[in-house]
Amino acid sequence: MDPIAILRWVERGRSRLGLRDSRGAVLPVDAVLADVASVPALAEHCQRLDVALSAWCQRAVNACPVRIDAPETVMPPVDLCELWTLEGSRSPVTENREADGDRAGGPRPARNDDSPVLGFKAPGGRIAGPGDAVGLRQDAIWHVPAATLTIVLDQRGQAVGFTLGDDVTAWDLMERNPLHQAQAKLFHHSAAIGPSLLLADTVDPYSSRIALTIERRGDLVFQGTGSTARFLPGISRLVDGLRAAWPLSPWTGVMVPADIPLPAWVALEDGDVVTVAMPEIGFLRNPVRRIGADWVDVPPSGMRVLRIDPTDTVAVALGALHPGQTVSAGDRDLAIQDTVPFGHKVALVPMREGEWVIKYGQRIGRTTCSIRPGQHVHVHNLESCRGRGDWDKADGP
Q: Residue 113's pLDDT is what?
């Protein structure tokens, strides 16, 4: 099977999805499936057909003659719920300290090398995309990038595909105090992913070569290449490692570092540009910026609504929503019809007049008119049942 990558971009205010074939031509998915603009929605369609995502994409690429030029500006190929990192690269200072365990506080417990060492990296809304700035902490001076192959897992824990990643770590915080490991790994835009999602069945991740470059004021500061074979255990082991103590969230990413050794003098500076590249996936290029007060406008992830209970017919807006937007509501795409303020309800399913509205898994009121998915649900079309003793007597508790 030829390599197939999925791209996502915004065109005239709406999100679009495309399949890039081995020749670089792009098939818009909406030329085959109307209103499908996200990887979760496409995966759900394939699941209903009982066909593998890669097989469906291959058939679509072979059968549909429609092609467009690859868009110049792309979004992250999938909106992740959360991002994890496989701890593979360590600083020389850390390694020296571990070798001198007695003086550092006595012998260390034996490691179970059969279990992957995973660390939480970022929630979905804190991940940078192609072209976005990656962040540098104000209280650290030794930030080091790591080129990664990022595995994207669906709601079943299956590897859907691979994208590139930049995993930035503030090593001096960790050297100052090992208890600062969380702060060293977790800060705003400490990770970037993109630009495309290479379908898992179309590539051998163990043989992939990844390049990392750092530019400073137009000059090349560092350049290196490596593979993930040294650090990449079986994907099933990674999934088992996550599930051992953490119920797997749908659309989770796991960053696996490439074995690209960095000299100890490499430290990112404000204004640098980091590029991670792999021919089959493309170029992930990100400028570097010191995090400051002007970063208060946190770019939201595509998952901008929260469905509190699986039975809910409405979701909560995690930010202001506007007509024409398409957001990810768990396992489905939702086209926004009205302006929905932050914290308000938006309909997930069509509802008839007089139908119960479910939130928190509980009835909260009845509709006063028909409501379409994506519409604002509030006092103008919802009659609350809170404190309605007459309804309680008529319909039971």
A: 52
Say how far apart CA 67 and CA 46 lie, in whole Å: 22
Closest CA to 21 of 63, 64, 61, 59: 61
Q: Which residue has the tokens 């990810």?
A: 328
Instruction: Indicate the pairing of strand 5-11 with strand 14-20.
Output: antiparallel
Q: Which tens digits make up the pLDDT trace of 102-157?
A: 434 444 444 445 567 888 999 888 899 999 999 999 999 999 999 999 999 987 88
Compute, in degrees rounded to 10, the torsion defined by CA atoms 143, 257, 124, 162.
150
Query: Which tokens in the block code for residue 194?
Result: 């993109």
Per-residue pLDDT of 179-208, as tens digits, reads 788 889 999 999 999 999 999 887 777 777
Mutual angle of helices 53-63 and 39-49, in 10-degree steps: 100
Alpha-carbon distance 109 to 87, whole Å? 18
The strand pairing partners of 162, in sequence order, are: 151, 198
Amino acid at 140: A
Report which of 130, 4, 38, 9 is spatially closest to residue 332, judged by C-alpha positions. Answer: 38
Q: In order of start, what are the domains of the chain with their CATH numbers?
A: 5-63 (no CATH), 82-291 (3.90.850.10), 305-395 (2.30.130.110)
Say whether the peptide bond before residue 195 is cis (omega within 30 degrees of 0): yes
